[in-house]
Structures
1.
Amino acid sequence: MLDQFSRTQLLLGREAMERLYRARVAVFGVGGVGGYTVEALARSGVGQLDLIDDDKVCLTNLNRQILATRSTVGKYKVDVAEQRILDINPKAVVRTYKTFYTPQTAEQFDFSQYDYVVDAIDTVTGKLELVEQAQKAGVPIISCMGAGNKLDAAAFEVADISKTSVCPLARVMRKELGKRGIKHLKVVYSKESPMTPIEDDSISCRNHCVCPPGAARNCTQRRQIPGSTAFVPAVAGLIVAGEVVKDLAAAR
């Protein structure tokens, strides 16, 4: 029967689409990278999506985050994402968690429920905890490395963490995972060397923070305010989604 996923079925086939429909994917972080991942997973027919992020849409997100528009500023990102998903696929099951994922909040999540985990968060401690929990549960996970301070959207690659180079975040993750006895992790990373953002106090979030009132964290707490573009995080997020769909569609 013709539906919104028919064009995808022409490439993947009915059985693969049924596997996607039955799949439950957890996306940790629905910002610049994770927002595009969620969008593509929803449009690919993934039937269940768990969205984990405690952040609200900020004015400065409009340059790169698919969930960010003037009308969504100040709203929780997971709530905006849920509405988008249900507009695309009313039959989807969406679970939202306004949670900042850390080792301290990890116990809120039962990873054995998931068919796939997406790591699109920023903090190293959170990313390491995600990898450990997913591997303990035997659940596939893909982790996105740094997308900030970069301009070359064509520099992204999919690789095992052991094969990465250049990316500072991947280097830290590789070292810390090694300490934990974890040698392998599928990642999306860029070989582009990160740029140093221009120092301009007139547009610095450090001095003119516009985060929504009540935000748990704001830009003044960051050591560095990263620069960003509309296309680099988007490409990273779409690559992540493509890997998830490919792996789920092929699973038996």
2.
Amino acid sequence: MEIYVVQAGDTVSRIARLFYVDLSEIIYANQLPAPYDLAVGQALLIPTDNSPAESVPLRVNGYAYPFISPWVLNQTLPFLTELSVFSYGFTADGDLIPPFTDESNMVTAALREGVLPILTLTPLDAAGQFSNYLIHQLVNSPEAMNRLIDNLLIVMAEKNYRGLDIDFEYIPAVDRDAFTSFVRLCAQRMHAAGSYRVSVALAPKTSAAQQGLLYEGKDYPALGEAADAVLLMTYEWGYTYGPPMAVAPLNKVRQVVEYAVTEIPPSKIYLGIPNYGYDWPLPYVSGVTRARTLGNVEAVMLAIQQGASIRFDETAQSPYFRYTEREIIHEVWFEDVRSLQAKFDLIQEYHLTGAGYWNIMQLFRANWLLLADQFQIV
């Protein structure tokens, strides 16, 4: 695979001739809709006949909601090691709350492709927000914890899950050690019951002393020891209510990885990768402005429709562009094969065991083709 950045005057036919490849391959790899217009600055993945270097083994996890398109799921499963179903909830007493849509077809499809289905556990309240109350009540009650694990084991056996992912966010500092004990208890009982893998999602810390509700409740070394694997949630620097910026700027991601490998073996670390972007109306006003989420392919189509040129921030290693609609200026940040290549390079530089995608609800084929070109998915 090669990456080519579109210049003024380029067409798909011209680029195909330049690389001596069939234009249909470029169209397919990059999901280009007819009439195959391009944006200046757009990064294209070009399939070539060049022999790839020896690939590095990599585990690949993708999160998905039960309402994922079956077509998107089937297109993506060949590139995954694990499929994390988002999500199961629970009550303060330890009763399990299933997803609002049955996920059985996802589990069946994953197993058919040799992919491990993973049950994702989250402390979401009725409004879909992470609940401090639920976390506190659970991790400070041995009875509730064991009841919840009992219920998890029943469901995991009945539905053929192969692992548990614990995604608790905004844990109060006072519950940090209790949460670690809960993860450790889950791992002990899951291993004893059926060799289930247990992973835990970690907020993107850059130091042990980092303050803030996102960070203080996560003890990197202790959780790294307790769980089989950890996911660094290295995304959402640019987010719905924040100012326009890259979702996963490489300079920020690198800082998290540099700290994580000092506390957790790289053989347990998955690098979080976003599969989406944001469109902010300007000017940005804190507490007022709300960005719109969009897919990476959708972002490029928007740039083409608006006649916008795509730029690339060398520090963040991320693409962005601006356009004007109804007299309102918009700024869009998203992921492309250049930004993904930078993240893949980081994985190899630090010898991390895996990549974890939030989320796989929209197909970005170029990502998967680039990933498979450089890694042996195991």
